[in-house]
Predict the 3D structure of the following.
Amino acid sequence: MLGIVALTHNPLVAQDTITLNLSVPPVEPAELVLDTEKGYWTDAFGDATLAYEHFTFSHGGGMYGESGYWSGFIVGSNGDTEDYGSLNSPLDGWLSNQWGNMAGGGIQTGDDGSVLRDENGKVQTEKGIPYLLVNGADPAITFDGEYEAVGVYLNNHPWPYYGNLYGDPYARALNEAGDYFKVTISGLNADSEGTGTVEHFLAEYRDGELYQSTDWEWVDLSPLGKVSGLKFTLSSTDVGEWGMNTAAYFCLDKLQVRTADTDGIHVPPPSTVQVYPNPVVDQLTVAGSTIRQVTVYDVSGRLVCQLQANGQSRLTIPVSQWSNGIYIMQITDATGTVSRKIVKK
C-alpha cells in the first residue's frame, strides 16, 4: 500500500503566500449549499456571486434546474469519473452529470494546509472535498488587490476527457497528429491589461497516442508577474463553424498568490514533473514547468545521457537504442531536482 506524505513545502509557512481554501465558508454567497446527491452548488444555474477571501470568480447561469446552463466557476464535490456519453449517445447524460473530475475528488491537505501526496508524488484526493468546476469562454478570477502569481492545480473534467478519447455528440475524438486541448492562463493587471500567458495542455495527441492526465497537476504561474486577476481561455484543434467543439470544461483548486513587494521568503511548490510512457519502448516524454536539465543513469550508476532543457515545458527523449532494464532519471526544474525510475522494455 502506498504511504501518504505531505508536501515538503507548506503554503502557510511563508506569511505572504495566500492559498485558495474552498473548505471554509465563502464571502459570497452567505451560505453555499451543495446538492447532497449530485454534489454541486445549488446556485449553479442562477446568477449568484461566488467569492472567497481575496478571490472573486466569474459566474452566470439561467433556467434553474438541471435543464439550465451555467458559465464561469462553480463548486463541486462528488469526484465522479464516470463516462456519461459517447459519440452516439444523447447529450442529456452529460448535462445531468457535469460535476466530477478525473482525479476522483478534491485535494487532501494536512492540518497545516499542506497538500498530501503519496510516495510517488501523486496528489491525494477524496470525494466530498470541494473543488472548482470551470466552464465557458474566458472565465476569470478577480483579486482584491495586486499580487504576485505563484501557481494553481488543474485537473481534467470527465466530459472533455472522454470526448477526447471517443468523441461525443458535438466533438470528435482527438486522434490526429498535432491534436490538443489546452488552457491558456492570462495575467491581468489593475487596468485589465495582459501581463503574460502560461499554457497547460489538458490533452495532446503525439506519437500515435493521446496523453491526458487524471491527476491534479501544478501549473507554475510565476511568469505572469504581478497581477490583479487571471483569465482562462480554452482551445482545441477540434473547431467547427461556431468555434471549439471540445466540451469547454476543466477543474481548478489551490490557487496561490503572494503579497506583492514583500521581503517574505517564498518557498516554491514541489516539482510535479511527469515522465511517460513508463514502461517505455521507443520515446520518452518529460513534461513539467521550466525543466532545466535531465540526467539518466543505469542501475550501475553509469551516465547514459544528459540533456539541457533551458526552461522548456516538454522534452522528448529517444530511447529505442537503450538496453532493456531499469534506469534512474534526475530532472531539475525551478523547484529543485527529483528522481524517477524508468523501465525500458
The first strand starts at residue 4 and ends at 6. Confidence is low (pLDDT under 50) at residues 1-14. The helical segments are 92-95, 158-166.
